[in-house]
Amino acid sequence: MVALWVIVMAVGLVGMIVCSKKQKTNPAMQPVGILLFIVVLIGAVMLLKSMDVFGGGSSSVLNSEMRFAESRGVKIAKYVAGIAGGKEVLFIVDKNYEQGDLGKRVVEALKKNCGGTLVLDSIPVPADAEANGTPIEEFMKASHMDALLAKHPNAAVIVSNIGLPQDAAKMAYFKAPAAARPKMVLMNAGFVTNFDFLKALQKGDIEAVIVTSPSAKYDIKAPGDLDKAFDIRYVLVTKANADQYKDQLPR
User: Fold this and answer.
1) What is the pTM of this model?
2) How many other CB atoms are found less than 10 A from the CB of residue 128?
3) If pLDDT is split at 50, 70 and 90, which confidence band does 174 have?
């Protein structure tokens, strides 16, 4: 419907321009121009309504975007269920994550679907960073992540919602034998630099990472089915499809 109202507005605007040029020689075009102006106004109102700019409960733009974001948690959780083996799943977030509605929904999705015991933890935020509102991704280092992982020796899977630190290649995690470390799953890549995600996925250093789909759509509402919502915007990249989506991986 969004496309339909855009077309209605475009046709109305073109008609108004034509009428404006012709009404000097043909006064009968003036009422036609007014009628087309009304058509444009109706098209604009209906476009905004179709996009739920006026709100409207669960169908509002905000709630639609919340469902898209929540779908990432559901997708990750279902994937993790296949590799957690009923053991501990460490979910790394920033310390205020659960204060927001989206954070609560994602945590609940993970608890219900991850197939193990979900444990949340976060990297300590320095006082100056907290005072300045500095995102954790900007100051997080390999040493911070290694210290956090060391607190959870029983975790079978790590799910990070803050990606990897900028100097991720220095993490002790990536130097440890695969059999001696938990599996790493990323809901996003963070601000990491000089890190070869394609190679990491192919080697098994990273189990999976969510990226934006090359065919992502932003002009439609998220369906109630969160699995379908995920497929509209995102891709879960694993060793199996890493080469297919290598252009979407951070470099």
Assistant:
1) 0.74
2) 9
3) very high
